[in-house]
Design brief:
This protein is of the alpha+beta class. The protein has helices at residues 2-10, 54-68, 157-160, 163-225; strands at residues 26-27, 33-34, 50-51, 72-79, 86-93, 122-127, 133-139. Helix content is 40%, strand content 15%. The strands form two sheets. It has a five-stranded antiparallel β-sheet. A two-stranded antiparallel sheet has the order 1-2.
Length: 229
């Protein structure tokens, strides 16, 4: 059980970073190079565009978003009913949808900036039987101002963002932090389970030893009680 637990911990797949989208070779979390030769950051998505993997599609659309002037957000997905693997993914603009209105806890609290504007821009990629990921839908138009960023200026992107975009980025990082906390909680739960099993095993051994000691004492008592011939 302990060995399987540590194997499970080591095999957990971290979310791959797409920060290095402009480099020629990009690796996923398992160290495998992602094939992004089907599209470059200077190319516009189109229906039928193919990628070797879901991650390659994410890398391409993120680079495209940076060049055009918006922030990509990984949105909905669908899993295969056969094996549970993701076979459909929607990548959207970070201004997609609308924020739910919630009552303010304090009148003195500064209202949060509006970051969702109902933008419809997106691409949808689907995994085909061949294993390729194909763009099945592409919406180009945005309903807000775009702020293009040079591909070599990705690391200075936060400096060129508007307050709304910075707020959106903070939200994305906060969501990522929450996911990491959930993952940490899962590790802790698994560790607690292993410790409980170890404790139960230790208690079981203690009971066996006590039984053996008791049996030896009973045998010794019977031998003492036997009359000497």
């Amino acid at each position: 059980m302990i060995n399987s637990f540590f194997f499970w911990v080591l095999s957990v797949d971290d979310n791959p970073s797409i920060e290095e989208a402009e480099t020629e070779t990009i690796q996923d979390s398992n160290g495998k190079e992602l094939d992004t030769t089907e599209g470059t950051s200077d190319e516009e998505p189109y229906i039928g565009m193919q990628f070797e993997s879901e991650e390659a599609a994410k890398v391409f659309y993120d680079a495209y978003a940076t060049r055009v002037g918006f922030i990509m957000r990984v949105d909905a997905f669908r899993r295969s009913m056969r094996d549970g693997k993701v076979v459909w993914r929607r990548l959207v603009c970070n201004k997609e949808g609308f924020r739910k209105l919630r009552p303010r806890r304090s009148e003195n609290r500064k209202p949060r900036a509006v970051t969702r504007e109902g933008c419809k821009a997106m691409i949808v990629v689907k995994k085909e039987k061949s294993g390729k990921w194909v763009v099945t839908r592409f919406v180009k138009e945005h309903n807000h101002q775009l702020v293009p960023v040079p591909t070599n200026g990705r690391r200075s992107m936060l400096l060129s963002q508007t307050p709304d975009e910075k707020d959106a980025k903070i939200r994305e990082l906060t969501a990522e932090l929450q996911r990491e906390r959930k993952r940490s909680a899962a590790f802790q739960e698994q560790l607690d389970m292993v410790l409980r099993e170890m404790e139960e095993h230790s208690n079981h051994l203690s009971r066996n030893i006590e039984d053996i000691v008791q049996s030896v004492r009973e045998i010794e008592s019977k031998q003492v009680a036997l009359p000497k011939r």
